[in-house]
Amino acid sequence: MSQELTQALWFASRATGLVSLLLLSATIIVGTGTSGRFASPRWPRFAVVSLHRNLSLLALAFLAVHIAGAVIDPYAGIRWADTLVPFISVYQPFWLGLGAVCIDLTIAVVVTSLLRHRMPLRLWRAIHWAGYGVYPVAVAHGLGIGGVDTRLAWVLVWFTACALAVGAAAWWRSAHRDHPDTLARDAAGAELWR
Fold it and tell me: What's the pTM value of the predicted model, to 2 decimals?
């Protein structure tokens, strides 16, 4: 593989990793608004739900390019199995293992979201909450494996801004737990799945 192609793969993997973090942040923020029943005249609930779904798909696409770039690039010797099985890689096993944990949790969230209407609401919700667990692990993965990139001021600002935005959304969600629609939906769901 030529030096130019290897370098292009390295830059593509790094760049799509940063964009994936931004899109994961946006997905969580909008998803938090969805679960908190956020709506306005300009943003009705169906639009917020659609935005959450589309951001999720876009995040998955960038994540796929991020992973493929890292595996195809021969420099680190990352195998496809390393992206799914945590902590088996010879290249930075801990930090890459955290990335594999993120992928595994993301797959669980995506698959159960596709099967949402065929499974108990409580089970779906419990697995979907794992999405919140993906976030700090993804941030740790990015900061730990980022190498020289994480010494750049703008990259640190990028990570900090994303984390603060997700933290603010989680705070907003905790303050909006008692929306009447949410309480009614939870009550109906509890009765439906007993």
Answer: 0.87
